[in-house]
Amino acid sequence: MVSSYLQLIDQRYGDELDEDGTEFLTYAVDGADRMRAMIDGLLAYSRIETQGTAFEPVALGAVLEDVRKDLEIRIEETDADVSIEPLPSVEGDETQLRQLFQNLLSNALEYSGDERPVVRVEAERDGSRWLVSVRDEGIGIEPTNQERIFDVFERLHGSHEQRGTGIGLAICERIVERHGGEIRVESEPGEGAAFVLALPAIESIP
Questions:
Q1: pLDDT tens across 81-121, in order?
Q2: Which three-class secondary structure string do you get for 159-195?
Q3: pLDDT tens track for 181-192
Q4: Beta bridge partners of 135
Q5: Helical packing angle, 94-110 and 168-178, nearest 10°
Q6: Which residues share a beta bridge with 116?
Q7: What span, in angstroms and rounded, lies between the C-alpha atoms of 197 and 48?
Q8: Is the CB of residue 144 less than 8 Å from the CB of residue 197?
Q9: What pLDDT is attached to residue 10?
């Protein structure tokens, strides 16, 4: 409602505002839009447990191919090199797993720095679980920040530097936990980052 009324003010009275008034209105609209995005993010976060579907075998390779198609325009715009190695099937909620990997791939493209994004998705068996990693060669993450990035609304960069609300990785962590797994990040500043998911195994790589 706030955003709608601000836009209405802009449409009706925008020509009557001086430079400062126009600037203030722009800030207000941007703030309202960010608040709406944060509320939407909180709703998505809260619904992971309550609105998830029953688990069934999910082929992660097919999920990643769908995610790559969804991000095709972004991949082309950035000339990104995205490679997906053979991946296993896991028991899970396909919609949530798709959201999980879409968030991780989007981040890998977003935080590539000035270089061409290079992203690798691969898996290896570790006893009774699969370790699925999403690796990039981007700007990396300081060791002191590697735990708090999974907190709700935790941002390492201002909204003027990078897009997002700071809830994407919190959603990723909650999805992984619902699937009986764990997520961690391995990174050094300037050396890229690897988000590693430990998920219960049900079968080997085909």
A1: 999 999 999 999 999 999 999 999 999 998 888 888 999 99
A2: CCCCCCCCCHHHHHHHHHHHCCCEEEEEECCCCCEEE
A3: 999 998 878 888
A4: 120, 194
A5: 150
A6: none
A7: 17
A8: no
A9: 83
